[in-house]
Structure formats: structure tokens, C-alpha cells
Amino acid sequence: MPKALTLYELNSLVRETIETTLTSEYWVEAELSECHENRGHCYMELIQKDDRSNTPIARAMARCWRSTWQVMKPYFMRITGQQLHAGMKVMLKVYPQFHEQYGFSWIVTDINPEFTLGDMARKRQEIIRQLKDEGVFDLQKELTIPMFAQRIAVISSATAAGYGDFCNQLADNDYGFVFQTELFAATMQGEQVEQTVINALNRINDRIDEFDVVVIIRGGGGTADFSGFDTLALAENVANFPLPIITGIGHDRDECVLDMVSNTRVKTPTAAAAFLVDHLTEVYSFIEDAQERIVNIVQHKLDVEKMRFDKVVRQIPLLFSMVKTKEESRLEKYLAAIRVASDGLLHSKRASFTLQKGMFYNAIGHLLERHRNKLKQIELQISTLDPARMLKYGYSITRLNGHAVTDPKALKPGDCIETTLEKGKIKSTIK
């Protein structure tokens, strides 16, 4: 009967063989199928998949001891903006280790974040290419943010500090604008980002008429793990959404795909709130300018008509001064009423400003035309009463001391009177 080795002896031979044969460290490219921490150490499962069938063709365990992991983890996050997670492709520097009790594993001593960045960039470019092929990449950019964008649907984590910052920034604006916000909670970090954000968009779409814009914000935590915002499914949902979407997911690295397909991208939740406040401020300034222009135009037209009115007044007898005063007063009342009406109209009907302006101009034009016609009628009536007109028909005017004589009993002997005819004057003395 042949002599058998114990399992320990056999495993010792394997360990000695590995230690004497594989003496170097090696760079290896692989995909992470598992990655988790335990007591400060990181445990990974590495796989390689067939390019055609996507079936694993190689698999190995890897470990990164705490002393190395505490340095490698923040370094990788700082460069890539992400945490190591399942499904990520990595380039690791490893050496072999075989333990009689725990078996074989690769010990990780270093990582190349540039390799992961390159793989992430390739995936991102592939998603962008597919979105452009579908013709949806720029759909959000074609949407216009409403003038009065005050009903805001917010997609964020309810406990995120960034959500609180966003709401506070909107509420404490310097202009006293009132915004209505409603939170649609979603996971903003990790593997659940894609599905929870899509679910939130679907809930908003069911109530599409209740909102003006959608804001997707994330903040208050680390800047790692943005992979959930670089997915094709999420990008397609955002690109095809019927309302403008503003993103402020709180990172400074290159734009993720979500940023690229959204209507407007800002860096932080606070910046998203500031953008909405600034937008409404610009609209308010536009309305104020329009209001001032309307009042100035109306004032100018009234000034022109007043000048014409004054010219007519100077050409008619003193009797018409009463009419002048009355009509001037009425014009001032109309001006005051117009100003009050225009102010109320602009504040209550801002959205229909352009249509109301045209109707306003027509009303003023008709009003002024009616008053011009009325003035012409009054002028004609007064001209028929002009004494000079009566002289042409053989009538005369007799004056005593410049006053018309209507009663001969008012004359005394010795009075000098003056009779005005159409052509010339006759002076007489009463005897």
C-alpha cells in the first residue's frame, strides 16, 4: 500500500512550490464580482468573462490587508470619484499566497485607477453614442424652463443634507419668491440609484401637470460612487422626460451621463436653488421693464394729445376754457386709471403679457380717438357762436367802454359808443 501524504503536507508542498516559483508581483486585469470589507481588510473575487458569451472563464480570490487598504481605498476614490464595487473593471498589483488552512488567494498591494477611469470612460462614451443614435441625447436641451418655474419636483434622499440646503436656499431668497417643492425620495448612492431615480421619475410623470421642473440633487456625503448616474436606462428616462430636468448631484469631476442629457447642470443642490431664484428674478425684471415701457408709451401719447388739445383751446373764446379744464381733469383720471389697471394686469396676468399689451394699445387708441372727435365737435359748435361770424350776416355790435350794449336804456346823453360792423367801426355820441 503506497504511503499517503496528509492534507497539510500536500498543501505545504503547494505553498513551497508557489513561493519558490512565483516570486514576483504581477499586474492583472480583472472584473470584480464581489468586494466587501471586514475588520478593515478588503476581500474580493476576481473574474474574467469570455468576450463573446460573457461567461466567466477564470475566477480567483484576492485580499487587501488593512495596512494597504487604508491607503489604497482613499487614493482610488480621489482619482476615480468612485468606490470599488462589483462589476467594476480594475488593474491590481498582486502576489500569490497559499495557506495550508485557508487555501490560495492573490494578495493586493497596489491598484491602477487610470485603468478603471479608462474603462469608465469607454462605457460612458458607448452610452453617449447609443443615446445619439437613438436621437434622444439633446431632447432635454430643446425644452424651455417656464417663466414662472415655482412648482418643483425634487428627486433626492430625504435625509441628505443637500436636500435641506436646497429647500433653505429657495425659502430664504432675497426677493420673497414663493416656491412649492415636493420630495420624491430615491437612493442617491450605490447600486439602487438607477432604479429608484427611474421610479421617482415615473411617479412625477403620473402628476406631470402639477410641476414646472424636476430637480435631481445629491449632496452632504462623499463624492464617491457615481456609477449609478452613468447608466443607459437612467439616461434614456431623463432624456425623454417631458419636463426640464436640473441636476445638482454635488461633484466636481467630469460630467456624468446624467448631467450631459439633462436640461441644465449645476454642481451642487445650493447652486440648483440659486439657478431657480435667478431665473425668476430675470422674469420679474423683464415684467417690471415691460410695465415701465407701457406706462411711458401711454404717457407720451397722452402728452401729444394734450399738446394738440392746448393748441385748439388757444384758438377758441374764453368760454371754452371751462371745457378745457374739464377735459384735462378727465384725461388725468384716465391716466391714473390706466396706470392702476396696467399695474394690476401685469401682476395678475404676467404669463399673458404680450396678448394683453396689444389689447391695451388698441383700447388707448380708441379712447384717444373718441376724445379727439369730441373736441372737434365742441370746436365746431363754438365757432358757430363766434361774434365775428355774425357780423358777416349784417349784424353789428355796439359797445360802451368796451362792453356790449344790450339795453338802450343803459345809455345816457353824452355817452360815446362804438359800433362794430363786418368792415370797420362807427363812433357815435348820445344826445
Total beta-strand segments: 14
Please estimate the helix content.
Answer: 40-55%
Give the low-pLDDT segments.
Answer: none
Instruction: Quickly give the CATH architecture of the largest domain.
Output: 3-Layer(aba) Sandwich
| Element order: H for helix, E for strand | HEEEHEEHEHEHEHEHEHHHHEEEE
Order of strands in the sheet with most strands:
1-2-3-5-4
| Integer-rounded radius of gyration | 45 Å
- Going by CATH, what is the homologous superfamily of the largest domain? Response regulator
Q: What does the average pLDDT come to?
A: 85
CATH class group of the largest domain: Alpha Beta
Count the domains. 4
**Helix/strand-derived class?**
alpha/beta
Question: What's the total helix number?
Answer: 11
In one word, what is the shape? rod-shaped
- Beta-strand portion reads 15-25%
Main sheet properties? 5 strands, mixed, barrel
Description of the structure:
With 431 residues, this protein is α/β, with parallel strands linked by helices. The protein folds into four domains: 7-111, OB fold (Dihydrolipoamide Acetyltransferase, E2P), CATH 2.40.50.140; 125-279, 3-Layer(aba) Sandwich (Rossmann fold), CATH 3.40.50; 281-384, no CATH class; 394-429, no CATH class. The chain has eleven helices and 14 strands. The protein has helices at residues 7-21, 66-80, 113-134, 161-171, 193-205, 232-239, 257-261, 269-314, 320-348, 353-384, 387-391, and strands at residues 26-38, 41-49, 56-64, 89-99, 103-111, 151-156, 180-185, 213-217, 245-248, 264-265, 397-400, 403-404, 416-420, 425-429. Strands 1-2-3-5-4 form a five-stranded mixed β-barrel. The chain has a five-stranded parallel sheet with strand order 7-6-8-9-10. Helix 4 packs parallel to helix 8. The model has no long low-confidence stretch (mean pLDDT 85).
